[in-house]
Amino acid sequence: MENLDLTVLRNLLQWRRAGQKALLATVVRTWGSSPRPVGSIMALCESGAVVGSVSGGCIEDDLIYRYSRANTPQGSAAIEGISHDIPSGPPERVTYGVTADEAHRFGLPCGGTLELLLEFNPEVAPLETLVQTLTDGHMMERHTAIATGEVKLVPASKPQALSDDGTTLRNSFGPEYRMLLIGAGQLTEYLATMALFCGFAVTVCDPREEYRGNWQVAGVKLDAGMPDDVVTAFNVDRRTCVIALTHDPKLDDLALLEALGSEAFYVGAIGSRRNNEARRARMIEHFDQTEDSLAAMRGPIGIYIGSKTPPEIAVSVMAEVLALKNAVPLPRDMQVGPAKEQLQPGSGTAAVCFSGQRTA
User: Fold this and answer.
1) What is the DSSP letter of 225?
2) Which of 94, 155, 168, 258 is most buried, with most CB under 10 Å away?
3) 41-45 and 50-52 as β-strands: parallel, antiparallel, unpaired?
4) Does the predicted model carry a pTM greater than 0.85?
């Protein structure tokens, strides 16, 4: 499953190539609580088809009602103020949730307000270039002149926050986030499935035929190479995470070392605290590593939710990966090591589950 922005843009391009009217909606500003962050996009076709999201659904419904022919009964008179068609012309701004009644009507959180920029019938050529660039794995900024709707594409080296100075809307788009998993065991199947649904492109590397032969998750690329060679050839960038899941130092350690020398936003390995300490000691003793050079290697991986089974462990790991991807700092008591230390007898800390209830 590709990332949501690329899915939106690809569908928008398909509609416009077919000669259908369509609009692109971008969240450009929010006040208070909002269901979708600034920079979120959705596309609406004149047929009523929608891809992407700018809210929990009610705002999408309103846009469909206002701009879709699917909501115009044949032969009926136009309703005043409602076009039921996607117009031509420059972009328009629309704000939802200004009043308490609107916030309730559109399902916005208490006090939530958001502003959208609607671009009508985007030109095909810039869309083709943008979609192809993202498909090729490169980042791009899309600059939209608000007075005319003219689009300019600018290559980018890193993601930037959306910018709207009243004259130009600048929104950066990146290729898919990628996840490289070392080992094709049962835990990997659960984690790969979750990553696919979260929009990651997933590759699983395992030179062991007995593990690859039982792989059952569709949409995942399997690689039989040695893990360190695969990491080297993977062109790891800041939108990539590398996770070792074999428990076998011959497969995990060299791959982790290669990943640590890259721009990967997440590098980690499965294992207990004791196994993690032993791994670090091996790398320091045999591979000339230091505590500083190993600082980015996460382990034990995941957030502490008391997980024991493979699917629960996968949930824990995926949550930590998403937190780092979204630049959300994790409280210390959610990290596996510190959390388990608090639960040790004699720690002086009552066990507290993450719902806030005391369990001891």
Assistant:
1) S
2) 258
3) antiparallel
4) no
- Apex CA 208: angle with CA 204 and CA 212, to 5°? 50
Using one digit for the tens of pLDDT, what is the confidence trace for 137-181?
788 999 999 999 999 999 987 778 899 999 999 999 988 889 999
* Fold (CATH) for 178-343: Rossmann fold (3.40.50)
Q: Which two tokens stand for residue 5?
A: 């922005």
d(CA 12, CA 173) in angstroms, rounded, equals 15
For the chain, give every domain's residue range: 4-173, 178-343
CA distance between the termini of the chain: 42
For residue 221, which amino acid is it? K
Q: What are phi and psi of 141, to 5 degrees?
A: -100, 135
| Alpha carbon 286 to its chain's center | 36
What angle in degrees, to the nearest 10, is found between the helix axes of 273-286 and 249-260? 70
Query: Helices (DSSP H) in the chain: which residue ranges?
Result: 4-17, 58-67, 100-105, 124-135, 186-197, 209-212, 227-233, 249-260, 273-286, 310-325, 336-343
